[in-house]
Amino acid sequence: MECSCPENKVNARVARLNALVVFVLGLIYILTPYGWVCYILLVDFFIKAVFHPRYSPISRLNAWLLDLFEEEPRWIFAPPKLFAAKVGLAFAIIISVLYAGGHPRSSDTFAAILTLFAFLEFAFEFCMGCWVYELYYKIAGSGKTEEK
């Protein structure tokens, strides 16, 4: 299913369901012996951050589910979500490297933070990556000097 949205839009409902999946996978990683789950997060965040969320298997599944239940898309500005996907990729890389390097307990700290961020997105529709993105542009925008 190809996304018919403009390049600078993403479906907020799909993003929210994606956060639920990340939350569940994060809990599985932290609470079970299935550490390999971090690699699922790594691959999915890589696809979202490098290509586009519409190509992510998790996003495609969630978009299909929303279509199945005839939920109308709610399009939002994409750049903050794309930035958040890059932050998620950074966390997934750290988690995976620590896990592969034999430090699964150290990676739990990063997994817990990622899981918390996913919970905030799913439960309250608060995207920490989007918040940082907007804060950066407010600060960067206010620091412009006037030309003389």
Written account of the structure:
This protein is mainly α. It has one domain (9-142). Helices cover 71% and strands 4% of the residues. It has helices at 12-31, 37-50, 57-68, 78-100, 104-124, 128-142, and strands spanning 9-11, 75-77. A two-stranded antiparallel sheet has the order 1-2. Helix 1 (12-31) runs antiparallel to helix 2 (37-50). The radius of gyration is 16 Å and the shape is globular. The model has no long low-confidence stretch (mean pLDDT 92).
How would the blueprint of this fold be written?
Elements: E1 9-11, H1 12-31, H2 37-50, H3 57-68, E2 75-77, H4 78-100, H5 104-124, H6 128-142
Antiparallel strand pairs: 1-2
Helix pairs in contact: 1-2, 1-3, 1-5, 2-4, 4-5, 4-6
How many individual helices?
Answer: 6
DSSP helix fraction: over 70%
What class would the helix/strand composition place it in?
mainly alpha
Total number of strands: 2
Form type: globular
Beta fraction: under 5%
How many structurally independent domains?
1
Major sheet details: 2 strands, antiparallel
Pick out the low-confidence regions.
none
Distance between the termini: 52 Å
Element string (H = helix, E = strand) = EHHHEHHH
Radius of gyration: 16 Å
Look at the structure and give the mean pLDDT.
Answer: 92
Strand order of the largest sheet: 1-2
